[in-house]
Design goal:
The chain has helices at residues 2-14, 21-49, 54-74, 79-82, 86-91, 94-114. The protein is an all-alpha fold and 115 residues long. Helix 2 (21-49) runs antiparallel to helix 3 (54-74) and helix 2 packs parallel to helix 6 (94-114).
Length: 115
């Protein structure tokens, strides 16, 4: 009876996910850097193409959707191995990237279409 209890405790303990805090922070930093970089590139592209108003924001959301899918593909569509939740991959750094996008969008638009 003692060995069966030990086996059941081992099975229960193996079901609990464990994360390394350092690895989790590194993975989140990679996501943040990726979103920031792609926000800057998307802002420059939106400015060069000449998007204005709502069209530019729709472009940003499409780029971030593609980025999220790309990050999930890079993680092998198993985010629970590398992150504590799916929301971290899908939405982390979303609004911070929006600020960078708007900054470079207006800058590139002014350089190309106004000057």
């Amino acid at each position: 009876m003692g060995s069966s209890e030990k086996r059941s405790k081992d099975v229960v303990m193996s079901d609990i996910p464990t994360f390394s805090a350092e690895n989790l922070q590194k993975n989140l930093k990679v996501i943040q850097n990726c979103r920031t970089f792609l926000s800057i590139i998307a802002g420059v592209l939106a400015g060069i193409i000449g998007f204005t108003g709502l069209t530019g924001f729709v472009f940003y959301f499409v780029v971030m959707l593609i980025t999220s899918v790309g990050l999930m593909a890079k993680a092998g569509f198993s985010a629970d191995v590398y992150f504590d939740s799916w929301n971290r991959v899908l939405f982390d750094g979303f609004l911070g990237g929006l600020m960078s996008f708007v900054l470079f969008w207006t800058f590139a638009y002014d350089l190309v279409h106004i000057f």
